[in-house]
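Take the subject:
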Amino acid sequence: MLALTRAQGIILAVGGAVFLLVAGAALLSRGRPRRVEAPEIPGAMRPGPSDQDLETPLLHKLQGWGVLLVGFFAIWLPLTLVLEPSTNLDQERALLTESIARGEGSVQLFSEENQGGIGCVRCHGPELRGALIPNTASPGGGAIVTPNLTTVCGGPWTGHPSIYSLNDIYITINQGRNLMPSWSIRYAGALDDQQINDIVNYVVSIQDESQVTFDHNVCINPDAVKAAYDNPDFVRNRPEVTNPNTSL
């Protein structure tokens, strides 16, 4: 018998393993059908998926996405409806704040820094609490007191017998009254609707709450408007007003 050294045994074992691997790979490759390269077909001319592919995996996928989409809208739509009123309210408050700020500038005198100034303070006083101005309606008429705009929303309760609602304030500014000229461009004035709306919003915001209570505030309280019209002590544009020039 021939004795093998340890090195020879290792070489024979490794060689045998390599032979077995090569032989096994050859057998597997002979058992597989040869892959034939498919011809190049343009994408538009390639056949679509089979009916089985359409009716099972693709259909399940579309159904799954459909369920997710329905679930999304089932949550999103009610949430939008719930949040929309508060969103609109926030936007309305922001617009009102901006309008009041513009109105505050409008009532002041015109200047280089305040080019939107109309100059309401010239007749109604620096704080719009009324002032003395010449009575230009009659020669030698002396001076008259202009209305206090910080109490105008009190209407007839605070000495403004021609003001029974917020609309009366708009009418007075638009069309003018007595010595006050018309300010709306609709009546040959200089202001557009937005500018007048800004001034009214500012005037409403500066009401003296110690004199104009909510119960008698015809600018913001519909019940006060009704009470003013129904009060037998108040007569709209009553002729017994002593000084009609102060009837704002």
Q: What stands out?
A: The first strand starts at residue 132 and ends at 134. The mean pLDDT is 83.
